Amino acid sequence: MLRIAIIGVLIVPALASATEPDPKALDFFEKKIRPVLVEQCYQCHAAEGNNASKIKGGLRLDSRAAWQKGGDSGPAIVPGKPNEGTLLKALRYEGEFQMPPKGKLPDQVIADFEKWVRDGAVDPRTDRASGGTPPPALDIERGKQFWSFVPPRAVAPPDIRQPQLEIRNEIDRFIHAEWDRRGLKPVPAADPLTLIRRVYLDLIGLPPTPDEVDAFLANPSPDAYRKLVEKLLASPQHGEKWARHWLDVARYAEDQAHTFAVTPKTQAWRYRDWVIAALNADMPYDRFVKLQLAGDLLPDAPTDGFLKYAGLGFLGLGAEYYRDGGCGLRADADELDDKIDTISRGFLGLTVACARCHDHKYDPIPTRDYYALGGVYFNTKLTNQPLGTPEQQKAYTAAQSKLKSLEDLQKKAQAEANAKPGDPALAASVRYLKAEVDRAKKQMPPPPPVAHVISGNGPGMPIYIRGNPTAKGEVVPKGFLQVLPSPTKPGSGFTRLDLANAIASRDNPLTARVIVNRVWAWHFGRGLVNTPSNFGTLGDRPSHPELLDWLAVHFMNNGWSLKWLHKQIVLSAVYQLDSKADANNEKVDAANVYLWRANRRRLDVEQWRDSLLAISGNLDRTVGGPTFNLSDPNATRRTVYAKISRHELDGLLRLFDFPDANVTADKRVVTTVPQQQLFALNSEFIVAQAKAFAARIEKLGTTNSERITAAYRLAFGRAPETQELELAERFLQLPTKPSDKLTRWQQYAQVLLASNELMYVD
Q1: Mean model confidence pLDDT for the chain
Q2: Residue 438: CA atoms inside 13 Å, Cβ hemisphere, count?
Q3: What is the pTM of this model?
């Protein structure tokens, strides 16, 4: 049958309920809204520290109940309606009131408040002054009993007496037990063509070639699939595909969104290449963690400078903020918050940054713990660590010095020539010098390699009362989270290395669970815990807790090997299921939480663009090296090597749901908007690939039928169906119009490249 397009629908999110707020909305409030209210508004609009007569305008902003009452001028906030209410008008400096009176808040802060109100103004704060129930006191010992803080146990896989499909490994036993418990029946296994395309795109991010498909289908050995998996895991393209997932978590980018005063990180790509190399080498994940946090401090650090230092780009490429009026207190605090948030969400799956202004409202993380972690990085510096030889650095410095001297002489000579126009001697001097400058530029050696790193160890820091860096409280000892074990006690000697050791410890109940869950989610489209960066109270509970624990324990027992984990997942029978629907199963588990079928997924933008290049024959498979700009329609390197900007993300990436590189991202959203198909129809890049694809096809047959078949095999890994072949032949016989910019074959090639079948994987 003909493949048909999938039409997306736009779903308008309902406003968050006051009784069951969305965890993401709560997280947004705690990170973006509460700190501003505390610092900018509570002095005049809070019950604490004020009596009723001193509250300005009769408006309190220290609880949901308080702002719901409004003030003397009417409602302050109308949930869902950012253009109503007095608060946003005052923040925008519109009308009678302008708040805060000492100066308008940054545009981004105001935009955050607009989003908060538009999304329903979720606010968990109770009103103690009006007799509301205060939150329970933070109990760390009790908190240790929460499921994610209890060490994982390697429980025995269930014994499946009557399996509904072949049990290929222990993963299948855990999944099968849930099917039996819920009355679910798995769909059949995927056909070989579907499976080979799926595993290629999953493990290396590229589709198989027709020859690779033929070789797989022609091999009757029961080990054929296993050997294919091992081959793909050993491919250099594996690291390129999977590095991109980690780079999302690391919020990797090469510039800054918050300031123009910072020198661009011209060699940020070395961190990206370090991640690719680490994954290709199957670096143990605990080592992977330590090198990104304290590679320069490890007693057994690599002797190779690239391996030792480049991983420190995890934080060395972090956010840098504009220092308004030369005052850096707020900028320093925000940069520190970025570090704590990225470390805690990325490695631990915890929202520690919610404790910046107050004890965490839901998890056993007191404010002291936030500043104990912060003290490790307080006053540390972002620096460039040389990776080259001293001779390289000396030669580059000397060449720079020579060039600057020549440019200074050229400017001086030009000034003299301007003062005496027509003087032939001065004009000639300006021309020898210009030639000298040009020659020096051409002879300039390339900049010596550097890694953009974070260096030093913080001295500790005080608590910022309510998150305000100008209101300092007691100094807290540096250390780790109290709810988690640490091999090093808090104190002045606690270093980045101690933090790295605590995070990467086998005794830490979170680290292995979090990365195992991330890898699972990147394979299946959904994690065993469907909030990969939040294993706290507001996060989802695991759908298969015993399987998660089993995987975490055996992952550590197998040397923290990510390739071992990939292999276990893709060799399971569950991974190899078809994606067909089943009406009976849909009634029980419409969301497919229990994996009775495979999830059909749209390729992310990197997989899609790379597939287009591979199919057209244009893909440059060179591994590593400097970035390129996606705006160049002739660029043919893999998308992982494209420049990532926090300030102005490339339009293609933005259009196809690339995450915001300002914050750590644990999953990609998928939108369906008309502009995506307009790009497929009109962009220079797509047209260039269509022309190359058509030229490639024309060489693969002597008749239209042979060429159409070759095109389908290249694009989809299969032969065309009869109706598809007939339709294509009729289309190719149509005469072209004078206005046509592409030949019939080029138009047909573009149709195939823009098809849904190419953009999705079953």
Answers
A1: 90
A2: 6
A3: 0.85
